[in-house]
Amino acid sequence: MEALINYLLNTALNLHAPEWVILLIRHLLVATILFLVVPFQMLLLTYFERRVIARMQDRVGPNRVGWEGVLQPIADAVKMFTKEDIVPAAADKGVHLLATGVVVVPTMFMLSVLPWGPGMTPVDFETSLLFFFAISSVSAIGLVMGGWSGNNKFSLLGAMRAVAQMISYEMPAILSILALVLMTGSMSISKIVEAQGGLIANLTDLPKVPDLGLGWLLFTPVGFLAFVCFFISALAEGERTPFDIPEADSEIVAGYMTEYSGMKFGMFYLAQYVLNFALCAITATLFFGGWQGPGVSQLSAMGANNQLFSILAGALGVVYLLLKTYFFFFTMVWIRGAFPRLRIDQLMGLGWKFLLPLTLVNIFSAAIWAACIHWGPEQGLAFLSAFGPWKRWAIAFLSTLVINLLAATLLVRINSSAESSMPKLVEDQKFGAVTLP
Amino acid sequence: MLKTQELQINIGPQHPSTHGVFRVLVTVDGETVVDLKPVFGYLHRNHEQIAESNTYLQNMPYTDRLDYFNSMTNNHAYALAVEKLAGIEVPERAEYLRVIMAELTRIFNHGCALGFLVNDMGAWQTALAFGIREREKILDLFEMVSGARMMCNYFRFGGVARDLPEEFIPRLKELMIALPSYTDEVEKMLRENEILLIRSEGIGILPPELAISYSVTGPVLRASGIPYDIRKADSYSVYGRFDFDVPVGTVGDVYDRFIIRIEEMRQSLRILTQALEQLPDAEGGHINPKARQAVRPPVGDAYGRVETPKGELGFYLVSDGSTKPYRYKVRAPSFINLTPLADMCRGYKVADIIVILGSIDIVMGEVDR
Amino acid sequence: MTVKIEIQRGSAVPLSRRHPKFLGQGMLKGMEVVLDHWFKSFGPKLENFSQTAGIFTTEYPEERLKLAEAYRNLPILLYDDETGQELCTSCLQCEKICPPQVIHITQTKDPSTGKLVLAAAEFIIEYDACMGCGLCAEVCPFDSIKMDHHYELSTADHASLTMHKADLLRPVSYYQSLAPTFWEQTKENAYKKLQNTVKRRSGLLGIAPSMVGKVQPPETKPAE
């Protein structure tokens, strides 16, 4: 991209622009594209969700505005804009207004570190994974601000629940990602994606496998367990069913959004869908290879000679990423269609008693994996280099599989036995004591 | 121990999941319910007083509006009461038609009640949409016979308003193919769902002694383990001629109230199958011709009751010999089942209130009257 | 534990509580059902009562449910197509039976003699308060008042919902198109009664206002 701008400015227009101008223009362009794409994605997601869930319930869903109802979200947005903005008289008006911004902006930032295609990361730096999760938790502050400033018990309860949930699920989410960091040895999202080439096993582990872009981390026991834990945490972070407790409509009306109306409500809505999109995208990126897929690496290799092929590779990568992202969003909608929600204490129990220990065990297996694959004489484990890469990979696979399976079974057993000690059932003594009148 | 302060929350009267205009004043300690006070009366329509100034037949359409979900069974209870009071005979065919309508009502009411209960737990309408789907079909049938989908006004003293149209029986037989697979599907989808299990098992336990002392009836009572069903205990209409079981719960929690409704739908299907087999032909007539004119019952009183999907619905009528009831009293199951709410909720979490309320299956039209 | 209490023709069956064999089994089953419905929603629509899957929405303004003959919305009055004679004789049966008491009838008096004529001078039904129970149509001995199938009555003008006789009158052929079998059953009886009624009417009394001028008034019967 820099090359393109450079060509336009310096060669075609002969302006002799310095390098910082080119960089500035590049970043401005990327930011504009992102800010245009993101709300558009949100509109598309709401439409997608409503249509899919309607079909799961034998209904049609919105199909009136435009062809098959595709313009429905735009009609909704127009409605949102034209509605009266009501601020409660007892509300803290400044905080009330500010909260919407604090919620929306971080979710936009999250998308800036995602690798959309080969070499298409808007901002690429070494600790982008850390940045992603750090910025995502900023919006929790916005939720508290929104919930508190409305001066309403329901919204305050919703905000408390939201923050408790966000904080307790950030732990398992980050810990499960940590396992991946151990496996790939990098905290840069784009490097994690690049490491997922190959077929079933990735190229760094087994250099000789064909590169079909299918060496997804999901296919390892560590990656699989991390994926399960992360996806559950992502559902909780994005406040999706069965963890949509902060805005449980049947209990606390709309949670922290109760006192918002018009476009301010729309902003919360936007933030939520963008967050969901970002979480789906990061799941696809970290566990399902992101833009990796059959053909992308071959095309970008051809791109060394012809610029056209690298553009094609980028486009294909974006298509792969979006497909995977939408698959995860479909799964979220699917889960929403099938399940009731948990209770707040059960949610906390699941997070702290089940997911957290599981992810800790997973980090341990990830360490074993990294040791089996990468370590050698330098670490004093010279005997490992006696095995070939296939053998080392098989040892790593089996040992982590056994450890993870054992841990999961054990934790399920511990947790289900704790649940059965709930209020004593009166099964044995009462029935049959009363006869027909 | 940390000192905490109790907080009062007002749930309702305008709230997404109070099933109408119902208000609960909850005292909570954190998320735990310390005390709960139901407040109702927001939908009071002066039903009983209006009924005393109307003639007996004029009240029939008003009973539709008590429990607006199950107008057929409301009609049934009122017709029974007046028939008892005035000593009106009912032709056999009419009795079978009444049973068919009542059991169809029970099936769709339970289907939707399950859906609403799961909705209260936070599911997004799917179980409800399936229930509504079957309800639509049944309402089509109701429209065919009575002319209206919800406010059927189909029963008359001494029979029913009109006989079945020709296409009714074939369509009902088609529906009878769909209903068993619907119940199986709901059961498969939800009965073993872990989230539903942990949300409902051991929640809102109503011990049998307490249930009896609150005179709770219907699925809520049976879920507490007491096999009391008016169709068996005080067999009215032609229910004595059918084989069916009374499912009872073992614990009396929300989960029992959930699965008992699935089982009752199955039993209703059994009754429907038998009723269709035994249905006499149209020669006997669908209404007692003597009873078509204005009813003028002798001085006295009568109590007619049926097992509606929600419990025992009874009408107590006192006649002074005129064409209007002297006293007219409704024993509404929703109202009486709602009274133990505080005892069921105490000690559970705020989110459980909604689930327990949903498991009672109330209709505010009947609670407030 | 299974205790069975025998009650007549059937038994009280305690429900068994089933738990999934492994964690997630129940959830997967639920997801399977939902996904199955998603796939089937692309298949044929739900039209037959025996189906349990497929889209069951009726997309209202374009598609409409076929109304049953017995369908009742709000009451209308009938008049004969050919002679324009109203079937109503203002016997006040419907006014008496109406539960919310929204029917108001003024009986006609012969201007020359001052005697009552078997026709309604004014017939008001308050559509806004009518509950559509259909008792009036059931009780009418002359088959004059029937329930309409037209249900799109929504309006912003509240006063227009007080329907006068001219708004309520419909030809018999209209009702026949709505409910052919019902009309077939009562046709003979209704016309017989109408003939009797017409004998006791004179001039334009009892002729639907829209038909005045289009039909010949019946010959005035000779004064006694």
Outline the structure in words.
The complex is a heterotrimer of chains A (437), B (369) and C (224). Chain A has 437 residues and is mainly α. Chain A is 66% helix and 0% strand. Chain A contains 16 helices and no strands. In chain A, helix 3 crosses helix 11 and helix 14 (344-374) packs antiparallel against helix 15 (389-419). Chain B is an alpha+beta fold and 369 residues long. The mean pLDDT of chain B is 86. The N and C termini of chain B lie far apart (47 Å). In chain B, helix 3 (71-86) packs antiparallel against helix 4 (92-120), helix 4 runs antiparallel to helix 11 (254-278) and helix 6 packs antiparallel against helix 11. Chain B has helices spanning 47-52, 59-64, 71-86, 92-120, 126-146, 168-191, 194-200, 208-213, 219-223, 230-233, 254-278, 333-338, 341-345, 350-360, 364-368; strands at 7-11, 23-29, 32-39, 155-156, 159-160, 246-248, 300-308, 311-319, 325-331. Chain B is globular and about 75 Å long. Chain C has helices spanning 25-40, 93-97, 135-139, 165-168, 172-178, 180-199; strands spanning 5-7, 10-14, 75-79, 103-109, 116-126, 145-147, 162-163, 169-171. The longest helix of chain C is centred in the last third of the chain and has 20 residues, at 180-199. The model of chain C has no long low-confidence stretch (mean pLDDT 81). Chain C has a three-stranded mixed β-sheet. A three-stranded antiparallel β-sheet of chain C has the order 4-5-7. Chain C has a two-stranded antiparallel sheet with strand order 1-2. Chain C is built from six helices and eight strands, in the order E-E-H-E-H-E-E-H-E-E-H-E-H-H. Chain C folds into two domains: 26-65, no CATH class; 75-211, Alpha-Beta Plaits (2-Layer Sandwich), CATH 3.30.70.3270. The interface between B and C is large, with 65 and 49 residues. Strand 6 (246-248) of chain B pairs parallel with strand 2 (10-14) of chain C, so a sheet runs across the interface.
